[in-house]
Amino acid sequence: MTLQIAGINPAGLESGNSSITAGRDLPWLQETATDDVWGDWAVTYRDVVILNEANERIEAYNLTVHDLAIPTNKETLKAKLREAAGGSLTAE
Q1: pTM for this one?
Q2: Which end of the chain has fewer CB atoms < 10 Å from its terminal CB, N or C?
Q3: pLDDT score for 4
Q4: In Å, how far are 1, 29, 57 from 17, measured between CA atoms?
Q5: Can you give the residue range of the structural domain that contains 63?
């Protein structure tokens, strides 16, 4: 399985899109009032939402609560992503 990562900006904060994407190649999506992705997936600020192959929410891992500067938090997130990908991802 291939792991895909994208950012999703909530509706109403479109003005920051150009600065958040400047110099980056991470796919960046813009939520609209019609497509309430943050609401549908119960997202809070700085959540990494892990989806299954059908784009259904498995869980969220919040980067404010779990600072990735702490090695155990980073390893936990990697393990969650590997598990969601069927264990087929290799470690960096």
Answers
A1: 0.80
A2: C
A3: 85
A4: 29, 9, 24
A5: 7-84
